[in-house]
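ARCHIVE CARD
SHELF: 3
SLOT: left
DATA:
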Amino acid sequence: TITENYPSADQSALVALNINGGVIAMVGGRDYGDSQFNRVTQAQRQPGSAFKIFVYLAGLYYGYSPEDLMVDSEININGWSPKNYKKDYMGEISLNEAFSKSINTVAVKLSEKIGREKVIDMAKSMGVTSPLMNSPSVALGASEVNLLELTSAYNVVAKNGEGVFVHGIRSIENTSGEVLFMRKGEGPGRVLNPDLSKIMMSMMETTINTGTGKNAKIDRPAAGKTGTSQSLRDAWFIGFTSDVVTGVWFGNDDDSPMKNITGGTAPAIL
């Protein structure tokens, strides 16, 4: 199995939702007999670059386009100087390429230009309920979230801007087949402009086709984003097709670093 091929990760978790937010599958850890802790709903972890979807959506909302250029270069904000994963700089680069290659400096520059409060507001409007700190590092996913809320936020893009209420029960019937309960309603309504969702979806398709999510490429259209937190403590991939949205996390319960596991390896493959 994939988890056996990456021994430095003691745990992994997965949640799959249908396009309306219904839970299709939920795996809260490697072995329920060993640990009943549900890492989909209970584990608060740093999403790393998987949080950048909110940075770029806010940027698009406030007038930027995927073709706009920004310089990937060293940045220093009150003594904080974030580095790229590969520790080098690409110079002038489009926002589309910066997103697909998960360039940290550009995400921070974009967040600071439009105002990080707008990034936080975007995340909250899409269903993130965990507290988000108002600091430059919020653009790089320094605030902890859980896998379910992050996956449900991506569901908004997958559903062309419509919000969803994540749910596990659609209907209840008795032994005679009589319907005792039938879920009504699908969500809170429009959250994002459909055109904005389509642009973001295209950027996420580029991430799979030529960016950090290449290991998630399948035989049909798919979109997604990788995420890796500081020192390889968390690895994420959140992605979707036309009818299923899936979130995957790899890490250790004691928050110790992993070896050679990023969002573009095990989570994207799974």
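SLOT: right
DATA:
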Amino acid sequence: MSFMVNSARFLFSKFTKYVGIIIVFLLFPSFLFAQYISSGQDPASVKWQQVNTEQFQVIYPADYEVQAQLLVHWLMQAYQKVDSGMVSEPRKISVIMHSKTAYSNGMVVWAPKRVELYNTPHQEIVAQNWIRELAIHEYRHVVQIENMHQGVTKILSWLLGEQASMIPLGLYVPLWFMEGDAVATETALSQSGRGRQPEFLQGFKALTQELGVQKYDRTILQSYKTYIPNH
């Protein structure tokens, strides 16, 4: 009998211990500072500065002042137009400029939410400033994800933090829509953009002319036998 009592006490103590840990993590999310997406390999010698507006925090290397000021200007232009057709107004977000890399791209990630810009121009750059291209395209992604922060997702964010917005995004919004919408936006709000380049759609047009319109599953999952353009 005493063995059973001791076992019950042991299990109860373990249960309360783990429940207590879970409660602490749920009720005090401000204590958690980890991030699960890390990017950029800037040298440790880089001196960082920042420009703050009501909508943006632009973080940049100290020797990149002119480009940072241009980025702030283009972001403010994008802020007034890019959220067209969306419901919620984007909240303030950090934008990090990486100038010490040969990588050419931009990305929007959550937890913590931020925009990462790799400012070396792409070899297949369109006919406009590369940083402006990134500002319009990536900020459209910010608007897309911010529109997930409403309804049930907003309630879940009280427990899961910023990453709650990624749940409906991953379940219901396909990647081709995210990128296609951003490309359409960069084209509509500038004098250039990939939507004006014939080669941007040439792979898709060639595929449909030769084999007809493909099934959705095959287009999304690709094929080892037939060339399928990516999202």
